[in-house]
Design goal:
Elements (H helix, E strand, L loop, with lengths): L5 H5 L4 E9 L2 E8 L24 H12 L7 E19 L3 E18 L13 E12 L4 E11 L4 E11 L4 E11 L4 E11 L3 H7 L4 E14 L3 H6 L2 E19 L14 H7 L3 E19 L7 E16 L2 H6 L2 E9 L3 E9 L7 E8 L2 E2 L7 H4 L2 E18 L2 E19 L4 E2 L6 H8 L14 E6 L6 H17 L2
Parallel strand pairs: 1-3, 2-3, 11-12
Antiparallel strand pairs: 3-4, 4-5, 5-6, 6-7, 7-8, 8-9, 9-10, 10-11, 12-13, 13-14, 14-15, 15-16, 16-18, 17-18, 18-19, 19-20, 19-21
């Protein structure tokens, strides 16, 4: 400690200190609870579909620090700085059935320009220049979870207060992984930015498929250049709401693998629709607009009798989402709307709009869109494995669709314009043409395929009168009706 003036205290004139420094302190905390309880309270099971990040309230945090660390009976008080350099903390907490081990390495604390005048309250304004940094923070849980944070920083000043993390990741016992890099939260600007984030599994697809006994879906999602603007900071720090004026994402990658192999479980997982998802979120949500600059989507589906999955891709997709709110007043005024434009199968320009009312008890959706010129043989990345047919020739000059879904009933139209369409049946086990395909004209006749659907007198529009299968997934409620309408026109 430097700059100590004890005579001021003895004379009743307060206390003046220079710099108080602590170098390489080590803190050890052990908490043992042997009560015989059989509950895993250290690592409770979280069934919520999403949780709010825990953002502290700066004023509350400073009030706690000031009230707990500063003497209220010595004034005036002046301290140039309090510095902790390269600290280490070890924590172990356990009960009869669970444990947690935690380490903090390389934590630094600097609190500067502490000043308390005679008669001043010991509150947040006394501490207005604080920097806390952590080089590495790691926690391990008995249930297999691991949390690792590197490069953490909290900076509190008169100009702005911010929190940042260079890298944070959570690994689950099931080998799930959640990563975020370059996280920055500005309290003054009510703004959160993330350089990149990803959610998914570390299990390779081949290993994942071999381990499955029931149909299941695998998701991997990655995003870059994320920004939340005009966040309701009070509600966020209370943990009651996520209210954001605008959420923007530079690039987004969605990779879905749907495995249909295996025996369906006796109790199938419930497929939630948008109106149900919003109600399952355990806090109030309101995002005026969500804008994604560049989205790529890969959807793969593995059928039981097919050796390889069918694959569909979308690229360079720009997405705008409005009306995402759990507020009944907003829901009554504005449905959830998703608008997208991009390329389908790296070739055809597409545009689509899907609208989902959220103030309903039965699933409702309105979809409409268009597709420009496409070599229909591009669909052979999907159709042979999934539908058992292969396109041998055909060009689509364009197509539009428009349909509504209520509950499981889908009604609408698909209007394709195409020419020279030829189809052959496929043996899904080999993905080769079966014995019928030696005579394509016979196959086409047997399927009653309409080879041409040009604009003009002979043009036909496909009717959608389709009943969705029970417990259909969201993507299936979009694709299955469109597929039914296309089949009505082409005759398969």
């Amino acid at each position: 400690c430097s700059g100590l003036s004890p005579w001021d205290v003895l004379n009743g004139d307060g206390l003046s200190l220079g710099t108080i420094s602590v170098v390489r302190p080590v803190f050890t905390i052990n908490i043992v609870d042997s009560t015989g309880r059989q509950t895993d309270e250290l690592a409770p099971t979280d069934t919520s579909i999403v949780r709010l990040p825990k953002i502290p309230n700066v004023d509350s945090l400073l009030n706690v620090l000031a009230a707990g660390a500063l003497p209220a009976d010595i004034a005036p008080l002046s301290i140039d700085a309090v510095v902790i350099d390269d600290g280490v903390s070890n924590t172990r907490q356990e009960n009869d059935t669970a444990w947690m081990r935690g380490t903090i390495e390389g934590f630094d604390v600097a609190i500067r320009d502490i000043s308390l005048g005679t008669g001043d309250a010991v509150d947040a304004h006394v501490l207005n220049d604080i920097t806390i940094s952590v080089r590495r923070w790691h926690r391990q849980y008995s249930d297999g979870r691991n949390i690792l944070l590197e490069g953490g920083l909290v900076r509190i000043s008169d100009d702005d207060s911010l929190m940042s993390v260079s890298d944070v990741r959570l690994n689950t016992a099931e080998r799930g992984e959640y990563i975020a890099k370059g996280v920055m939260f500005s309290f003054a600007n009510h703004r959160l930015t993330i350089d990149s984030t990803s959610i998914g599994t570390t299990v390779p697809d081949k290993e994942w498929l071999a381990s499955l006994k029931h149909p299941a879906d695998r998701f991997r999602i990655a995003a870059e250049d994320i920004a939340m603007e005009d966040i309701d900071l009070d509600a966020l720090t209370r943990g009651t709401a996520l209210t954001v004026k605008k959420l923007s994402v530079g690039t987004l990658m969605i990779d879905v693998f749907s495995n249909k192999r295996g025996t369906p479980p006796r109790i199938k997982p419930r497929q939630l629709m948008p109106h149900q998802i919003v109600r399952e979120i355990p806090f109030t949500v309101g995002i005026d607009s969500l804008v994604v600059g560049n989205t790529s989507i890969r959807y793969a589906e593995q059928q039981p009798k097919s050796p390889t999955p069918g694959v569909l891709t979308w690229s360079n997709v720009g997405v705008t989402i409005t009306g995402l709110s759990s507020d009944p007043v907003v829901q009554a005024r504005q449905p959830l709307k998703i608008q997208a434009t991009g390329r389908f199968l790296d070739q055809a320009q597409m545009a689509a709009t899907f609208t989902f009312p959220l103030n309903v008890t039965v699933y409702e959706m309105h979809g409409e869109g268009s597709l420009q010129r496409l070599d229909i043989r591009k669909l052979n990345s999907f159709l042979p494995s999934i539908e058992g047919i292969r396109i041998t020739s055909g060009t689509a000059d364009g197509a539009t669709f428009r349909f509504d879904v209520r509950g499981r009933a889908a009604r609408g139209v698909v209007d394709p314009v195409y020419r020279e369409l030829d189809i052959e049946l496929v043996d899904k086990k080999t993905k080769k043409g079966n014995w019928l395909t030696g005579d394509l004209s016979f196959v086409a006749s047997w399927l009653v395929v309409k080879n041409d659907n040009p604009r003009g007198e002979d043009h036909e529009v496909g009717k959608i009168a389709y009943t969705l299968p029970p417990n259909a997934a969201l993507m299936e409620t979009i694709w299955f009706p469109i597929r039914a309408g296309l089949g009505d026109v082409a005759g398969f």
